[in-house]
Design goal:
By secondary structure, the chain is α/β, with parallel strands linked by helices. 38% of the residues lie in helices and 20% in strands.
Length: 418
């Protein structure tokens, strides 16, 4: 376990300051994600959870005796708008940035942060990526200033296809994704891993659609239905996930869905009971995992969750901030360069197992779960389905836990350190 650097006396003093509302300094973290437009719900979810983390940390005295503050910036899920917001962040002297929705945004931010830091020694910014999973970010596009706390797309697909490969009833698979870097990474990984694990399975469709612009997925669903596929693989997120599965439900599409983000805000509600036993998700957490040491945190968030954000979703966000705080304490500083050096290579025990920020590429190695949405126990489902999602009557039940070392794919990163 990481030991906190604050002495008992210093911690008590910091806690007293916090209780009095008199903070000497504030560590600000810019949250650059969509807070308006078609993906506003996903941005709102992360913001609510991260502000909850800051609230809980500040109640205990903050970090290094300083208050933690999450400062929201709306990027409308646009790379160009994200760069505009990053300029505001730089002008305001904020030294930490977090973002997760859209790998296109992530690639633009990572490159811009690296260039800014090279031109502005002593004013460096660290970029904390909690959900953008294009493998390029920790391979050929890796950066010392970028740290990813979610599993990369190929790591997630390794876990998802491990479960899929065991289902011998699947002979035809349809792949559909958003038409940008992440969607193509998901598709490429799915094709390659199916070929290796189930060469008998036929990929009967590999389709891409515009990001956030499709209002009616009925034409796409018609193609899936006509293909005879028993399973669909998709990395869709936000409204593109909700609307796709909703269209499938309305068309009576009888397939199993293998997804990254069907647990995202609004999607379980949109899918309804038709998803029970049909929708699988790969993620680092769900509320019904066995031996859930994050259960108390989960319950505390739910008690004060803002309307419309009822579930605790981002354990990786908690992991991110836990490790950031530990790195600051280890460095005895909130200076971004010192913190980055403390963070890379860090190993710690998370709520659900060991976490390692791999030094070679700044990719977090962590356990993953593949789980199926079932009717909740209260609605006649299995006893393990205790906590449902969004009060939808759908609850996650574990199919498999995949340890971090199993999904730790190799990296081509040639890290350049300052």
């Amino acid at each position: 376990m990481i030991k906190r650097a604050l002495s008992t006396a210093a911690f008590a003093a910091a806690a007293a300051l916090a209780a009095a509302g008199a903070w000497a300094e504030t560590i600000r973290i810019a949250y650059i994600d969509p807070l308006s437009g078609p993906f506003a719900n996903t941005g709102a979810q992360g913001l609510a959870e991260f502000q909850f983390y800051a609230q809980q940390l500040n109640k205990k005295g903050g970090v290094l005796g300083k208050k933690l503050e999450i400062v929201p910036f709306d990027n409308k899920v646009s790379p160009q708008e994200s760069l505009n917001q990053l300029k505001r962040v730089q002008d305001e002297g904020i030294r930490y940035v977090t973002q997760g929705n859209s790998s296109a945004v992530a690639l633009a931010l990572s490159d811009a942060v690296a260039k800014y830091n090279e031109r502005n020694p002593g004013k460096e910014i660290v970029y904390l990526n909690y959900a953008a999973v294009d493998p390029a970010l920790t391979n050929d596009k890796c950066s010392f200033w970028h740290f990813r706390f979610d599993a990369a797309a190929d790591m997630k697909m390794e876990a998802l296809t491990a479960v899929m490969a065991k289902d011998k009833s699947i002979t035809k698979v349809y792949i559909i994704n958003q038409d940008y870097s992440f969607g193509h990474a998901v598709a490429d990984s799915a094709v390659a891993l199916l070929k290796r694990k189930r060469p008998d399975v036929q990929v009967v469709g590999n389709e891409f659609h515009p990001l956030g612009k499709v209002k009616d997925f009925a034409p796409y669903v018609a193609k899936i239905k006509a293909s005879g596929a028993q399973a669909v693989i998709t990395g869709n997120w936000g409204n593109d996930m909700s609307l796709l599965v909703k269209a499938g439900k309305e068309a009576g599409l009888n397939v199993d869905w293998y997804t990254f983000y069907a647990g995202g805000l609004g999607t379980p509600t949109a899918m309804g009971e038709a998803a029970a036993g049909r929708v699988k998700i790969v993620a680092e957490y769900h509320s019904n995992v066995a031996n859930n040491k994050a259960a108390a945190w989960d319950a505390a968030y739910r008690k004060q969750a803002p309307k419309g954000n009822p579930d605790f979703y981002y354990l990786r966000g908690k992991n991110m901030f836990d490790m950031l705080v530990a790195a600051m304490n280890q460095a005895k500083s909130d200076d971004p360069k010192k913190v980055a050096y403390a963070l890379e290579g860090m190993k710690t025990q998370g709520d659900l197992g060991e976490l390692e920020m791999r030094k070679t590429d700044h990719q977090l190695i962590q356990p993953l779960y593949v789980f199926t949405l079932q009717k909740s126990a209260a609605h006649g489902g299995p006893k393990e389905a205790k906590i449902d999602m969004e009060h939808s009557g759908l609850a996650p039940v574990t199919d498999a836990r995949v340890e971090g070392y199993v999904t730790a794919t190799p990296t081509s990163c040639q890290m350049k350190r300052p």
